[in-house]
Design a protein that fits this description.
Layout: H1 2-19, E1 26-28, E2 31-34, E3 37-39, H2 48-54, E4 56-61, E5 69-71, E6 74-76, H3 78-90, E7 93-98, H4 102-110, E8 116-122, E9 130-132, E10 141-145, H5 150-159, H6 163-175, E11 181-182, H7 201-207, H8 215-226, E12 233-234, H9 246-252, H10 262-279, H11 286-299, H12 301-313, H13 321-330, H14 334-337, H15 349-366, H16 387-391
Parallel strand pairs: 4-7, 4-8
Antiparallel strand pairs: 1-2, 2-3, 5-6, 8-10, 9-10, 11-12
Protein name: Transglycosylase SLT domain-containing protein
Family: Belongs to the transglycosylase Slt family.
Pfam families: SLT (PF01464)
């Protein structure tokens, strides 16, 4: 018996020795590991029915004026709007994943992370993805789907019609124009002789201190937003005197049923301005901070931070609005919105810079309402203000 036990030990030892020079293939939940290298399984492309069952079409693209960008809280861009129409056609929602370059889009598509590349790809990529669907500039540039996804490619080819491009461009041009905001234009000054700016001056006086602002600055912003029309509304969903977006209203605790109420709308806006003040607490100069807050109210704080990062990179002062405004404007150029330090892509910066400029000019005009005898609207002749009042805007004159 002891002899048999020793024999088994010898056989076991020889087996171990004979296998010591070999590495066994090991299966894991993430793939097959061979000689220490993990090989991921090739992802299968989802069929149309699987996309519909998931309820979501995942789109890859890059930031740009013709592809995809954020505008006042809404997504725009020719290729995004076309892809949104296709998603609606097959009855699903659309999720956008923004990539830094073409190779990232190709990699993520072939890895099964998305369903479609909604970006004009040249014919040189035909070996890596299946080109199909939308063609905007020429037949050499099309969208892409997984090489094996013949069904989705065929569906896109059947759906797309060249006239769609012109229709979408016309729609987008309308949305970006003043015609897309429904409002009655009121006078920028209700009663010049009495120094009354609007019917809502009492609310500006009451709530502007929440943001540590001069109430007349808030009035100037209100005129830029709605021309003092409490029922103003835009295609993007902005509502009321201060054009508050539904998501912002929800964040601020403003019920949608009260969004057109003048006092509620102004109070919520003052709360939002106070939040933006905190976001830019690193901007020390109070007048400069006002400009950053106004720019963020219009164009989004993340875009303004991108412009500040660019200003710093190119040797300008990130806390001086005149320097930062230069890069807000440059965020329309691929050289700048594709810069690695830019996190939020393309921006229609000219509108934001103009928005800040117009409000600051009108505020200078409104600063004379406390002394109506010296105030003449339209010629930009403000009353004389002390140095303290000019820069400590939380105080009244």
């Amino acid at each position: 018996m002891q002899h048999i036990f020793h024999l088994l030990l010898i056989l076991l030892a020889s087996t171990i020795i004979s296998c010591s020079g070999q590495k066994k293939e090991e299966l894991t939940p993430w793939g097959t590991s061979i000689n220490g290298d993990t090989i991921l399984p090739q992802a299968d492309a989802l069929s149309i029915s699987e996309i519909q069952n998931n309820g979501e079409l995942i789109m890859l693209t890059m930031s740009g004026p013709k592809t995809y960008y954020d505008y006042h809280g809404k997504n725009l861009g020719l290729h995004y709007l076309l892809c949104e129409q296709f998603a609606q056609k097959i009855g699903v929602s659309l999720r956008v994943e923004v990539c830094k370059d073409t190779m990232e889009m190709i990699r993520r598509l072939t890895d099964g992370e998305a369903d479609i590349i909604a970006y004009p790809l040249p014919s040189s990529f035909a070996k890596e993805v299946r080109l199909c669907g939308v063609s905007t500039d020429s037949l050499k540039y099309k969208w892409g789907v997984n090489k094996d996804n013949e069904e989705l490619a065929e569906k896109l080819n059947q759906w797309f019609q060249p006239q769609m491009v012109k229709q979408i461009e016309q729609e987008e041009n309308f949305l970006l124009s003043a015609r897309s905001v429904v409002r009655h234009v009121y006078s920028p000054m209700l009663n010049r002789a009495k120094g009354t700016i609007s019917l809502y001056d009492q609310y500006f006086m009451q709530y502007a201190p929440l943001a540590r602002w001069d109430w007349r600055l808030m009035a100037a912003q209100c005129y830029q937003e709605s021309t003092f029309d409490p029922k103003a509304h835009s295609w993007a969903g902005a509502r009321g005197l201060m054009q508050i977006m539904p998501e912002t209203a929800k964040h601020l605790g403003l019920p949608m049923g009260n969004i057109f109420d003048p006092e509620s709308n102004i109070a919520a806006s003052a709360k939002y301005l106070a939040e933006l003040n905190q976001h830019f607490k690193d901007v020390q100069h109070p007048i400069e901070k006002c400009k950053y807050v106004l720019a963020s109210y219009n164009g989004g704080a993340f875009h303004i931070r991108d412009a500040m990062a660019l200003a710093r990179k190119y040797g300008k002062n990130p806390y001086r609005w005149a320097d930062v405004a230069e890069y807000v404007l440059k965020l329309r150029s691929p050289q700048f919105y594709n810069d690695p330090i830019v996190k939020h892509g393309y921006m229609r910066g000219n509108e934001t810079v103009e928005y800040v400029d117009r409000i600051m000019v009108r505020w200078e005009q409104y600063r004379g309402v406390a002394h109506p005898g010296s105030f003449k609207f339209g010629n930009q002749v403000p009353h004389k203000a002390s140095h303290r009042n000019r820069f400590n805007i939380g105080f009244k004159d």
